[in-house]
Design brief:
It is built from two helices and three strands, in the order H-E-E-E-H. The chain is of the alpha+beta class and 87 residues long.
């Protein structure tokens, strides 16, 4: 695999991951989960999802799920278990 092919493959994976996280966030919000946002944070080979959620009238919280080495179904579980309403 050439460098260009490798860079293109990584870009496609990042785009697919971002789209999946956006769809998950929208679905959870439509289902009534008080989720404010899901954000992907990448640092080198590390990939973390930040879940920002609302609890109570004036409070909000942030939790993190490290999905660097996770298969897609495990990553989904790691993200969902960070949201208190889904525990």
């Amino acid at each position: 695999m050439t460098d260009e092919e490798w860079i293109e493959r990584i870009a496609k994976e990042k785009k697919a991951r971002a789209e999946a996280i956006a769809l998950l966030c929208q679905a959870l919000q439509k289902a009534g989960v008080p989720l404010l946002s899901l954000k992907i944070i990448e640092d080198g080979s590390d990939c973390t999802v930040e879940a920002m959620f609302k609890y109570g009238a004036r409070h909000w919280g942030v939790r993190y799920a490290d999905i660097s080495m996770d298969a897609p179904h495990t990553a989904l579980w790691d993200i969902l278990r960070q949201i208190p309403e889904l525990r």
